[in-house]
TrEMBL record:
Pfam families noted in UniProt: PROPPIN
Keywords from the UniProt entry: Repeat, WD repeat
Phylogenetic lineage: Eukaryota, Viridiplantae, Streptophyta, Embryophyta, Tracheophyta
SMART domains: WD40 (SM00320)
Protein name: Uncharacterized protein
Signal peptide segment: none
Length: 373
């Protein structure tokens, strides 16, 4: 890390001189650089060439519009539905927000809470109420939100996707990121300073997700055929799902907050929802008992503990990257890099029912106040 400073950026919303030409298509249509969910899928944030927009989901509506300048953000993260955001510039040479800096912006005061600078490009940022996590190509920095001190520096294998996920329950501080070898995941208990190494796949990890309490970890590799669920505390493989037989890039994986479902989107244009087995998730006792599963695999029939097919499916445009989350009452939520929002129901299994499909850029801004953290 080069530096960390605290300074105001009240001018963030003012237009700036911009020497890089903008094509005609970008003038009429807002180009999306990134889309990401907040921690509980109650909202999402969209980074564009001109700024960023924030949306809440129940119902879907625009909460904040900050597209008043031409220096956009390739990485945008939000802390639940609060006024705090992490911003990383899109990399133009004349930008005041370069790809090597992270700005934590307080929208309530229209100022920068802190600025973190690095020697290489920032690939991802994750937020907890207590921590700021910054992902570089071969390392992960963990900062205290209160005093900006570096609490941990984690070395990883080359991580071009910026893979990292963190728990959100206040009593637990769990972080998962790639290990030092391909297919490996390292899980850090930040409070107890304990590290668990999980050999999740034979090939590189392409996607990972933790539950809010950090107890379960979902992973997928570059093969894209299997999704695996682990007990993040001891590394036990609890369940394995088959997305398909052909290779595919998995864009997003999510575990529902009620610990019943896992959803995954991929480049094949199919959304899959899988059913988590209740016998290994209903209580800590059952989760501990599941640690015997690897031993039972050699004794019991393969259909009992082999990979399982999806419970429900939905077809999506193949050309669009979708990020998946969960709504209420057996609904799954999708936000696409094409500017679309979808809400689908999967009560009966099989083909899902689409309940809602909107272009989120067409939504008008509301006057709803966000939470001040």
């Amino acid at each position: 890390m080069i530096f960390s400073t605290v300074r105001g950026i009240g001018s963030l919303l003012k237009p700036r001189t911009y020497n890089t030409p903008i094509d005609e298509a970008a003038k009429g249509d807002t180009k999306i650089l990134s889309v990401s969910w907040n921690q509980d899928w109650s909202g999402f944030i969209v980074g564009t060439e001109r700024g960023f927009n924030v949306y809440s989901c129940n119902p879907i509506k625009q909460s904040i519009n900050r597209e008043t300048h031409k220096s956009g953000f390739k990485i945008v993260e939000m802390l639940f539905l609060s006024n705090l955001f992490a911003l990383v510039g899109n990399g133009y040479s004349n930008s005041e927000y370069p790809p090597t800096k992270v700005f934590i912006w307080n929208d309530h005061t229209n100022s920068c809470f802190c600025e973190l600078g690095f020697k290489s490009h920032v690939l991802a940022v994750k937020l907890r109420r207590e921590h700021i996590v910054v992902v570089l190509e071969t390392s992960v920095y963990v900062y205290s939100f209160n005093n900006l001190k570096v609490l941990a520096l984690i070395e990883t294998v080359v991580n071009p996707r910026g893979l990292c996920c963190v728990s959100q329950v206040e009593a637990k501080a769990v972080l998962a990121c790639p290990g030092l070898h391909p297919g490996q995941v390292q899980v850090h208990d930040l409070r107890r300073n304990i590290v668990k190494i999980i050999k999740a796949h034979d090939s590189d990890i392409v996607c990972m997700s933790l539950t809010l309490d950090g107890s379960l970890l979902a992973t997928a590799s570059t093969k894209g055929t299997l999704i695996r669920i682990f007990n993040s505390l001891d590394g036990t493989l609890l369940q394995e799902f088959r997305r398909g037989m052909e290779r595919a890039e998995i864009y997003s994986v999510a575990i529902s907050s009620n610990l019943k479902w896992v959803a995954a989107s991929s480049e094949k244009g199919t959304l899959h929802v899988f059913h988590l087995r209740p016998d290994i998730l209903s209580s800590p006792k059952n989760i501990n008992r599941s640690s015997s599963l690897p031993l039972l695999r050699g004794i019991l029939p393969m259909y009992s503990y082999g990979n399982e097919r999806s419970f429900a499916q939905f077809s999506l445009p193949v050309s669009t990257k979708f990020m998946v989350g969960f709504g209420v009452e057996n609904t799954v939520l999708l936000v696409g890099i094409d500017g679309s929002f979808r809400r689908c129901r999967f009560d009966e299994g099989g083909e899902m029912v689409e309940l809602e499909h909107k272009c989120f850029f067409s939504l008008t801004q509301t006057d709803d106040a966000v939470v001040v953290m």
